[in-house]
Amino acid sequence: MKIAITSTGNSPDAILDSRFGRCSYFVVFDTESRSTEFIPNPNIDAVEGAGPASVQLVASRGVKKVVSGEFGAKVKSLFDSLQIQLVILNDPEKKISEIIELLNHKN
Amino acid sequence: MPRPKRIRRMTNPPHFKGFRPIGLMEKNQPIVINYEEYEAIRLSDFELYGQVEAAQVMSVSRPTYARIYESARRKVAQAFVQGKPIVFEGGKVYFDSEWYSCNTCGCWFNHIEKDKEATYCALCGSTQIEHYSENSTANAIDDICICPKCGFEKEHQPGFPCNQEICPTCKCRMVRKGMPHHNRMRNKNCQKI
Question: Which residue from A69, A93, B86, B113 has the fewest beta carbons nearer than 10 Å?
Answer without folding.
Answer: A93
